[in-house]
Protein 1
Amino acid sequence: MAINNNLEYKSKLFAIGNPLLDISVTEGAQQLLEQYKLKANDAILAGEEHQPIYEQVRTTLSPLYLAGGAGQNTARAASYVLPEGSVVYTGAVGNDNFAKTLREANEKEGVESAYQVVEGTSTGACCVLITGHDRSLCTNLAAAEKFTVDHLRSAEIKQKIEEASHFYIGGFFLTHGLESALEVAKHSASADKTLAFNLSAPFIPQFFKDQVDQLIPYADIVFGNESEAEAYAQSHGIADTSAKNIAQHIASLPKTNSGKDRIVVITQGAQETVVAIGTKSVTSYPVTPLAKDAIVDTNGAGDATAGGFVAAFVLGSPIPECVEVGHKLGAMCIQQNGPQLPYPKQKV
Ligand code: 26A
């Protein structure tokens, strides 16, 4: 997309989520899915029964260690498109090598890491099992769920929040961070800024329905995929679970900042992306399919798509262009291992 470098961009994106290191395996993944009774395409919080998986993967397989965390992936993707110095990301990490890897990835991709460091706790990790075009995510949040609202109230972070024009909150963060999410959301609405929110995974609208319902009134942009939209419909008693209907439903829910319509973006893999704008319109945008053998792994594709959309939106692009940039980054991401984009940078 065209970026006019003569423009003075005051826009800054401030994102918040669970910083995680992805521990990704392809060979041996099928056996682990069966052993730990994981679904091929899902994202869950690790229970007691899943705890041994991390050590097992580390000692018996050759995993890739990649920067992850859904919100952080989106921040890095947005930064791929935006001018330097545009994206700040916060979340809680430990004081360890995993956090070092995450900081390095952010630095490489132009994202400022504004982490809260929790001493004595490890940085969170996500075991990623890749089977074909599916990916199963099993997460130990560890330090990530120790994030506290005090961090947002520190002078340094407060200033970054003041300076930001746009915010992004990963739905995953709502498993523990509603108070912090609402703090950012209320600031965004009262200052007439823009807040984007991602449903993140089916279990978020399913088991964290109240938290989602508390945040949505402040959201100007809501992202989800087809299975998250369906889970939203089910937990909210909506009979018509089509992407169009759910997008329209969420777009027309009450809004704190009623001055602008809520935009809801529902992706459906290689099927068309549906965008509803308030009660005004619902439009489908086809996805240009990639050749099957060009797909390396789909982990992070949704995050990259959201990042591309948000970045274009921050730049003031019209919605069809935001969708196009989202699709481009999504396609670039699935041609890489894990939640990464190609370097040297390709033209978007
Ligand atoms: C609370 N949970 C379960 C999570 C996550 C998560 N990010 C935040 N919170 N579970 C998986 N992920 C991340 O999702 C990305 C793919 O969309 C993984 O780290 C992976 O990079």
Protein 2
Amino acid sequence: KVVAVIMVGGPTKGTRFRPLSFNTPKPLIPLAGQPMIHHPISACKKIPNLAQIFLIGFYEEREFALYVSSISNELRIPVRYLKEDKPHGSAGALYYFRDRIMEEKPSHVFLLNCDVCCSFPLQHILDAHRRYGGIGTMLVIKVSAEAASQFGELIADPETKELLHYTEKPETFVSDLINCGVYVFTSDIFKAIEGVYNQMRETCEFSSLMAYLKRIALFFFDFILNLAASNYNHFQYATRSVPADFVRLDQDILSPLAGKKQLYTYENKDFWEQIKTPGKSLKCSDMYLSQFRETSPHLLASGDGTNKKPMIVGDVYIHPSVKLHPTAKIGPNVSISANVRVGPGVRLINCIILDDVEIKDNAVVINSIIGWKSSIGRWSRVQASGDDNERLGITILGEAVTVEDEVAVIGSIVLQNKTLNASVQDDIIL
Ligand code: GDD
């Protein structure tokens, strides 16, 4: 038996996803027509003998309740949301729920970050892990040397694939091989985390003892002891700058275990991207849509402008409830969620349209994300400034934004419930 854990973080994370993440947790924002977290969950579903999937986060339970019950029914596999009382860090959160995770005595635990987009080759990682031994195997990928510094950089033995060295987001270049945020572990991972907790406790006890001794001895040896204590404090700040009950998987576990024949790597040859900004989510939506072309072509729309069906270009997802005028032209890379209405002559390119949006006659939407219940007027234009796909380049409309007729919204971010009756460019509308 195996189980999977997906780390979903909480409301203090995902702030770069505003205004979309104001009312919807980032892991539930749709990519390719499905919540972000749906993609790793459906990859987990394919692992033989998967007993349960746990989502661990510090969002309120009610925010995940509906999704968790509908996905459990749909996939016929128990998906549970486990809420931390406060953030414990990526390894601390796993340890906090160790009894729940190990309830069914799984032989292996998969651990996935919720904000990565890839084909999740989980069975391959598990097979490789069984060959290597050790307590864990992580998915790694080569990226450009410039991009590598945003991730955990690592060195692996080219023959044995052992993780030899690991540094999280280093300031100076270490390697173009990086951590993808997808792992498989044996139950020994909990012992490793416990080891770090014990060390931290000892450090705390040692530091209170030092403080006590300092107070007594100040009386006699003020100068000498102050010197020793200040050295000790310096050491403490240099090694940890986070609360004592917060354990990060990367810095606190992977780094010290590297080079000890405990951790191994499996190189990903397929697509991989991290999803930290809305611009990245457009790119990831595109990657998942092209994956659908291979794995689930029935999810992609088709049409050539005849037989009362609109013209579809490239990979496009359209929810079955969408009302689409046959003279609209859609794609490539467009996902349209439930109950959207698209009027005559509308043109949509490289965009995500969320539930209940209305796009009126002859409007154009390019390189943008349109929030739930928004409305785009006749002959209006919503697009990025230039070709830049990054955060400020693309246009994002928050929930329930109204763009009136003949208005252009270019390279702007518009907060929820705003009405735009004049054109804006490269602006943030609060
Ligand atoms: N439940 C919970 N509690 N989840 C958390 C917590 C916490 O306290 N802290 C972080 N997470 C979740 C995040 O939601 C995310 O899914 C994952 O843990 C990792 O988040 P971070 O620790 O913020 O790291 P990161 O995303 O900047 O970088 C990590 O992932 C990269 C791959 O995307 C690192 O492991 C990098 O080395 C790696 O390259």
